[in-house]
Amino acid sequence: MVDRTLSRPELLRRLATTRSELSRTSLLRRLRTIEAVSGAHVWIDGRRLLNFASNDYLGLAQHPALREALVVAAERWGVGATAAHLLGGHREEHALLEEALARWTGRERALLFSDGWMANLGVVSALLDRDDVCVQDKLNHASLLDAARLAGCDLKRYPHADCEAAARQLDARPDAATLLASDGVFSMDGDVAPLRELASLCADRRATLMIDDAHGLGVLGHEGAGSVAEAGLAQADVPILMATLGKAIGVAGAFVAGSAALIDGLVQAARTFVYSTAMPPALAAAARAAVDVARFEGWRRDRLAQLIVHFRAGARTGGLALADSRTPIQPVIVGESAAALAVSARLEDAGFYVPAVRPPTVPEGKARLRVTLSALHAESDVERLLAALKTALA
Ligand SMILES: Cc1ncc(COP(=O)(O)O)c(C=O)c1O
What we know:
Layout: H1 11-24, E1 36-38, E2 41-44, E3 47-51, H2 64-77, H3 92-105, E4 109-113, H4 116-127, E5 133-137, H5 142-151, E6 154-158, H6 163-172, E7 178-183, H7 195-205, E8 208-212, H8 227-230, E9 240-244, E10 254-258, H9 260-269, H10 271-274, H11 281-296, H12 298-317, E11 329-335, H13 337-349, E12 352-353, E13 356-357, E14 367-372, H14 379-393
Parallel strand pairs: 3-12, 5-6, 5-7, 7-8, 8-9
Antiparallel strand pairs: 1-2, 2-3, 4-10, 9-10, 11-14, 13-14
């Protein structure tokens, strides 16, 4: 018998209330289904749209070499890894991919995780306890910020890219074991962190530096080795390097790279590594094929660089406000969420897929169109987008 005098809140009803509040404030997220994909185009609601929202910066997700590696490995290994890495799930494909990633990033070893969230959570909670400090940029990806919250450590945030404020946060507790964690390329703004300054802050104050290079790997640096390589920083400067395999690499998954001591330690202590099924071996094979393409098909990065220059030059000529970004992430800040949604809808009517990104993903009043460029785009695609943006923003 239900006791009708109980005042316990009903969880699903609360969720529904939150949802209607989000709807009222133009913050409701909408799940769209992509019906087909071909090159830079996607099909949504039966319409063919030019996609400017993908993180497939080098255009590898549909590359024949990756498809073939995936199919061949699936024939050999089947589909699932069937177990966690430590309990029989760690196949030769995983070991070979880890070696390839360590070589590429100039690190001693690498360790695979099922995705970037799990990698960040695994590292931060393996390293930090309640008495420790985690200093982070305010615009870091949610997975890094939440990892520190879940680790239960003292999370100290500093204003975006402000190294003096970061130094003050480090100095606030000089005796505490401290990790400073930053995105390499900021996912919603496209700018690159002040990596050399952060490395020297950490070296001077004996803090450990961790860089999440989800959006830098494949895109920046010699052979696409990432923002950390581009900044000339070695393993000693950035002892913990994390990156994902679902963006420029075009597959899925993530890895952490660093010293043998770091990796051996994570194998014991990173709970998201220990207690999670290994990624399907065929995905590891596809990711290894992607590493070769990303490293050695340099024309993809050259093409991307040309597109970025083209977009920025066209935007300037057209009087469009640009963010301070030299990467494929070129946000167009609109301001209010309702306005960003309206611009996105007008772009969709004109044949472009550029979803609006709103709070809490970005700060209040900074809703935007997160335009991303890919080596799959042609210069004429960029020109058409710029023309459509000008009309949609008018
Ligand atoms: C900077 C950054 N870190 C981590 C992640 C999480 O990676 P994944 O999508 O593999 O969980 C993302 C992905 O959106 C990201 O942008």
